[in-house]
Amino acid sequence: MAFFAGLIDAVAGGGGLIQLPALFAVYPDVPPATLLSTNKVSAIGGTLNAARRYLRHVSLPWAVVGPAIAAGFVGSLLGANAVSNFPAEPLRKALPFVLLFLLIYTWFQPSLGEAHAPKAMSRHQQAKGVLLGLTIGFYDGFFGPGTGSFLLFGFVRFFGFDFLHASAATKLVNVATNLAAILMLASLGQINWPLGFAMMVANIVGSQFGSRLAIKHGSSFVRKAFLVIVSALILKSAWNAYFVS
């Protein structure tokens, strides 16, 4: 499952949709915090590998992506720290509807993310990058599902990236948010390192295949994968929020 998670995550995000349920199914008696953190260890390897491959083929506007990466790291630390103080249930209930909005908006905007036309760099754009990284980073540290999809949509909608460049930027921010969550959870001794590293190897191999597919077939392929993955995530999150006690 880590292999398939790495493949899907490298294209359009959403690998946690495969990897996390597998962990919970195989280790039903292990504390959820340990499984969540082990999932992060596995995912960061594949995400970093996919980012490396993307950067060989695309050039990113670092004036925006850099601040988003730094803000994502800080936001994830804050989110992971807030887990014990605030209930995640409202987010769990709202997630299917937020994802549905992303799906409908993208579906009815067929030219969205088709061409790579990043907006002129300015302090306003940099501030938007910080806000995107901080917001989604906090969400990833606090809750997590759909983080890659939210980042992908954000870079396409607010910065004029095509889906291929947005996927590359998403991987870099996601590496930062995963790293922050790992550091926070490691300090609490809640990570199964042997399992996490074993899954990381499979995740990296999957990300090799996924990033090759995305680079070979371009933005239209990533857009289609995004729509399919978000649809699946809507169904899964709705089931978890409203039908699983």
Q: Quick check: average pLDDT? A: 84
Rg computed from alpha carbons, rounded to a whole number of angstroms: 17 Å
Shape: globular
The helical percent reads over 70%
The major pleated sheet works out as: none
The helix/strand series, from N terminus to C terminus, equals: HHHHHHHHH
Distance between the termini: 25 Å
In what range is the share of β-strand residues? Answer: under 5%
Count helical runs.
9
**Number of E-type strands:** 0
What structural category characterises the helix and strand content?
mainly alpha
Q: Could you name the ranges where pLDDT drops below 50 across 5 or more consecutive residues?
A: none
Provide the descriptors you would attach to this structure in a database record.
single chain; 245 residues; mainly alpha; 79% helix; globular
Summarize the structure.
The chain is mostly helical and 245 residues long. It has helices at residues 2-12, 16-26, 32-55, 62-82, 89-107, 123-142, 147-159, 163-186, 193-242.
Can you characterise this structure?
- This protein is mainly α and 245 residues long.
- The protein is 79% helix and 0% strand.
- The protein contains nine helices and no strands.
- It has helices at 2-12, 16-26, 32-55, 62-82, 89-107, 123-142, 147-159, 163-186, 193-242.
- The protein is globular, with a radius of gyration of 17 Å.
